[in-house]
Structures are given as C-alpha cells and as structure tokens.
Amino acid sequence: MMSGNMIGKIFDFLAHKVCFTFAVSFFSTLGATAAVPALIFIVATIPYETPSDFHRDVAVCTTLIILAALTHYILYGLGRLWGKKWEHRDLCMLNDHVTGSLLMKDIPTPELREISSLMERLPGKNLRMAMLLSLPVVIIGAVQHYVFTDNVINALYFFRGGVIAWITYITFTYIITELITTNLRRSTRLILADRNAWEGAQNSTTLSIKFAFIIILMITSMVITHGVSTSTVIESTAKAVMVFWVLNLVVGVFMCVLVFLSILITLNEIEATATQLSEEKRARFISGSIDREFVNTAMGLYRAANKIIKYRDDLHNLNVNLEQKVRERTEQIELLSRTDPLTECFNRGYLIENLPQEIKKARRYHRPFSLVMCDLDHFKEVNDTHGHQVGDQVLKEFVECIRGAFRSDVDWVARYGGEEFVIALPETDVGGGGILAERIRKSIEQRKILVGAREINITVSFGVTGFEPGTPTERVSAEDLIREADRCLYQAKEEGRNRVVICPL
After folding, report:
1. Residue extent(s) of CATH 3.30.70.270 domains in the chain
2. pLDDT digits over 274-299, tens only?
3. Residue 225: strand pairing partners
4. Residue 472 — φ and ψ, nearest 5°?
5. Nearest-5° angle of CA 254, CA 258, CA 260?
C-alpha cells in the first residue's frame, strides 16, 4: 500500500511538473527492469573471452537504452518542461486538457469523448512507441557484438537474449501504462456517463491480450530456463527447475492478480449499482476496470439499472395517477350517494345524516338555526299537462332559484321527496329564514319557465321553523324541526298556497 501511494505521488509530481503523457512514459520505461532475466540469460549463454568484451556490450546497450528512453520522453512531452509542444497531436490534446493527473470537468462533451478514446488507445500507442525505440537497441547490440568478437553463434545468442528482453520490456510497458491510466480513464467514463454521452469501450484492451501476455511470458521463461540450464552457470537440473518455477510463479501471480482485480472491481460495481436501484433517481456508472469485457459488462449493468429505475419511476407515477383517479372516483361516488341526480342538490339521505350534526353544532356554539320546507304548488298538474320532462325542468329551475338566494358556503338544500325540498340555514334565526323564504317565493313567482313556445308560471308554499340559543334541548331535534316545518307548510297550503308560514319551536 505504501509503495502504491509513493508511486502515485511520484506520478502526480511528474504530471504536474512536466505533463501527463511524460509521467506515463517515465513509468512505462521502468518496465525495462523486467528484462533482468534476459540479461542473466545473455550472461549465462555467451562465453565472453575477456571482461572487456562484456563491459563493452553493457556500455553500448546502456547508452542505446538511455538514448531510446530520452527519445521516448521527448516524443511524450518532455518539451513541456521548457514550454515546447513537441509531442504528437493526440498526446498534445491530452496534455492540454489534463491538469497533472486530474481531468478538467468543464471540457465540452465532444472533446471529452475524443479524450476518452485517446485515453483508451494510449496503452497501445505507448506499446508501439516502446517497440520501435527498443528494437534498434537489440539489433545494434547484436551487430556490434558480432563486429568486435567476429563470433556468429555468440551474436545470435546475444540477439536471442535481446529479443527476450525486448518482449518482456514491451509487455510490462503495456501493463504499466494501463495500470497508471486506470483512474483517469475511469474519470472520463464517469463524466461522460453522467452526461449520457459515453458510447462504450471500443478502444479498450480485451481480456484475451492478458492471456496472450501470460502465454508469451511463460514461453519466454521456458526459453530462459533452458538457456541457463544448458550453460555452465547452473550445474544441476534442480537449480534449473527452481529457476523455471520462480519465473513462472512471478509471471502467473502477477497476471492473475491483474485479472482478479478486474473481476473484483466489476463485482463491486454490480453491488453499487444494485444498491443505487432503491436509492437514486438514476444509476451512476463507475468503472475502474482496464479490460473491455469487464467495462462492457459494467456498461450493460449501468444501462439495465437505468432502465429498471425508469420502470420503477414510471410504475410509481402510474400508481400515483391511479391513486388520484381512485380518490376522484371515490369522491364522485360519495357525491352521487348524497346528491339528487336530477336537481344536483343533496338528497334525503344527506339530510337525515347531516341535519342532526348541524343542530348539535348550533347548540354547542349557541347559535340560532332555522329550517325551511317548501313544496311546489299544483306540481301534479304541471306533470299531467306538460309531461314529466317539463316537470323535471321546473324542479331544476326551482333549485337554481334557491341557490341564488342563500349563502352557498353555509346554507344547503336537500330534496326531501317528489317536489318537496328542505333548506337548512345555520346561524340564521326564524325571522331570517322567513325573509329568505319570501325572497325565494317572489323569485319563483316572477320567473317565466319556457316550455317550447309557451311560458308557464309556478308558485311555491313555504313552512319555516327554527330555534334560538335559549330553546330547551328536549324540544330541539331533527325530527321536531322537520315535523314543525311540515306542519307550517301544510298550514300554508291550507291558507291558499304561494305563501310563507313561520312557526318557531
């Protein structure tokens, strides 16, 4: 863990002081340390006649390696140390938008998409650069060995060892480049995914490349083991087998750890995505993997998670709308259950249920209350003469007259039965109830009801009753009020109709 933090600090320092791609090239050339087994192979398989021959090979190859490394650094941004942009256009674009080892978040989406693609291709680009710059070291080293020793066999051994060193170097260069760019590639994917602009990891490395590296390195270790075992350096077979085991164990463990980490990261992403399904409005894509298969798996889960969240939200909205419709329909049913379908005023059931409540409220707060019962005069003759449809129209217009006369937010009217209606007047004394009844009587008397081309007039009789705050409780009930109002209405009918009769309790 400490070495990982130290490497990260060194990388950040170089990326800030010079540029991002220079830091990448600096660490990738450290993969040359993987060529140490190949150098051992060269030493073990080439019988140098004098130490000076060995020293000459070391000096020439070291000089060539230093020149190749410097060329690599210059092509990957060393000029930025002096304000010069000598690197390739793609690398220049990366260095212009990457501050140190951090990506600037205000980059426009098209440029960020291109940067993400460049970042995915960077390991391959760095691999090709390492191949081109290190291959001349192998060729020139073998040629100079032949020129000075005039020994073809030893030159071929030197070349074989150089090829082995070249293979291990470029392999580890690729892997190191992938590892040190993982976090930055993850950041670009995350930002693009948040913008719904990430199009996948078409340019990232496939997992098969790692397995190819494993096979190449195992074959290389076998060649090294065979060469060392046939030399005078190792005299016993057991030592050769031990070398083989150590080399293959190092290669196998290293590569398997990389593959295992990729799998572990993907599994963690699956867990994070599953957790977000119940907590977030949208899933957040997180991918630190460096293999295309795992990245595409994470992308597939990300898309599936967003679809599930969308379906969940759609289902939630559907349930909300359904609940709203159920409430509206329930309110409609309740309204229909207490409303007269013809006149749209309250029905008798509402009257029987709510009149006792109005009386209790008036008694509790010491308020007056009055009740008006009204009946259309000679309504049967209207039905018999003009038909029931005209009778229905008359009832509707009568209710409209009532609604236009009382307080709609306090008073209410209910159809008691047939052409008989009851008007409840809270906080209104009997005198006020009589005034309201007289106003309604005059309004309906003066109203002309059109029936086809003819006009008809109707009259209404009213019975008004009620109580004051001081009225004894035993005399106040819904039955008493209805009974008294009905008696007053009957009296109005007996006295000639079209009149108001007031009978306080």
Report:
1. 348-502
2. 666 565 666 666 666 667 777 777 77
3. none
4. -55, 140
5. 110
Q: What is the pTM of this model?
A: 0.60
CA angle 120, 126, 131 (to 5 degrees): 140
Residue bearing the bigger pLDDT, 201 or 148: 148
Secondary structure element (H or E) that encloses residue 424, with its range: strand 420-426
Distance CA 314, CA 298 (A): 24
Smallest CA-to-CA distance from 301 within 186, 193, 182, 191 is with 193
* Cα separation, 415 vs 265, whole angstroms: 74
Distances in whole angstroms, Cα of residue 73 to Cα of each of 79, 80, 140, 452:
9, 10, 21, 103
* Token pair belonging to 327: 């409430």
Closest-CA residue to 217 (of 71, 35, 377): 35
CATH match of 348-502 with 3.30.1330.60:
no
User: Which residue shows structure tokens 């409220």?
Assistant: 361
- Which residues are bridge partners to 464 per DSSP? 372, 502
Q: How many CB atoms lie within 10 A of CB 121?
A: 15
Helices (H) and strands (E) in the chain, counts: 16, 9
